[in-house]
Amino acid sequence: MHTTPHKTIDFWFDCASNYSYISIMRIEQLAKENQLSIRWQPFILGPIFQSFGWNNSPFVLQKQKGRYMWQDMIRECKKYGLPWQKPTVFPRHSVLAMRIAVLGRNEPWIGDYCRAVATANFVDDQDISSPALLDALLRELSLPSEQIMTDAISDENKQAFREQVVTAQSKQIFGAPTFFVGDEMFWGNDRLDDAIAYATRTNS
Amino acid sequence: MHTTPHKTIDFWFDCASNYSYISIMRIEQLAKENQLSIRWQPFILGPIFQSFGWNNSPFVLQKQKGRYMWQDMIRECKKYGLPWQKPTVFPRHSVLAMRIAVLGRNEPWIGDYCRAVATANFVDDQDISSPALLDALLRELSLPSEQIMTDAISDENKQAFREQVVTAQSKQIFGAPTFFVGDEMFWGNDRLDDAIAYATRTNS
């Protein structure tokens, strides 16, 4: 365990997840206002859902819940002042996007990158599984896209990505976004403010 | 459709549901502060879950989610200043309790009754499927328990109860608590404040 300059919140997210989109857009500003560090913890929900016997998102498998969720997203994005457009494909495959996020999780560009991918998915209705799109997003951030794309699919980074998913499962994560302050789990964008408040009064 | 003296929120709830407990304890005060009418809409989740192919609560079927929920309840009840004790049996059968609620849904005692049942379940760890307990709760409210218990299991009230469940399904309700302001659905105690705010600015 390394020491951190101030209190820390672990942020488990998947850019394919619609409620992760809201937290991705909010968390860096909230952390700054509350003098918290974020540990970005990219993972993917697919293997988690598969472990429950589900072959897709519960928002697809449960029609009623899915239908409600799209209404809720309109209201929630309005509440938080975020742009929103229902994607024509859901959920989109996010493996490559999240491999890049694992590679960059400790880099200063991680927040900008995640916001760019989540915005592409949930505002601009773009295919975030496309290497060409991810390449373009990285270039727009003035990042060395070619090197990043190569490193993202290296054996070492693929292994780091797999380990994230294993760690998520070992922490009993069942959805995204999920926040941890120490061992205390908070699930869903609805609990981000509670997680922040908890972190500000906890040594973590 | 009858006219209501002021704006109205439909409150779909099941006293077996832990997040319903929180809303049952909160809603009457919130409605009063915001000059809203509540239409109490008792139902049971069991047939809804069965229609999804589930033979129990998702909090039982999904171990990880269930484990998290019990942690979340402690924090949420603390947040809202509500007493809380994890029940030793979950979920408890609430058919009789909810039949009584259907019978009393337009009576002045409905709020007190629901709070008494939900408190028995989630604070005092009592068996709300027990007719003796429900009888005692009604008597504590100085209500004619014998008459109410008889009327609750009349054919007419059983039919009214079944119709509540059918209506819940036709409204695509998939969990509890669920709030409606007109046709706008809000799911979960987490959205009660949003539903209230929506109702105060909507003609409903």
Could you explain how this protein is built, in words?
- Two copies of one chain form a homodimer.
- Chain A is α+β, with helices and mostly antiparallel strands and 204 residues long.
- The first copy, chain A, has helices at 18-33, 46-51, 58-61, 63-79, 95-103, 110-122, 131-140, 145-152, 155-170, 192-200, and strands spanning 8-13, 37-42, 178-181, 184-187.
- In chain A, strands 2-1-3-4 form a four-stranded mixed β-sheet, sandwiched between helices.
- The first copy, chain A, starts with 7 loop residues before the first strand and ends with a helix.
- Residues 1-5 of chain A have low confidence and may be disordered.
Which structural traits does this protein have?
10 helices; 4-stranded mixed β-sheet; 204 residues; disordered N terminus; homodimer; alpha+beta
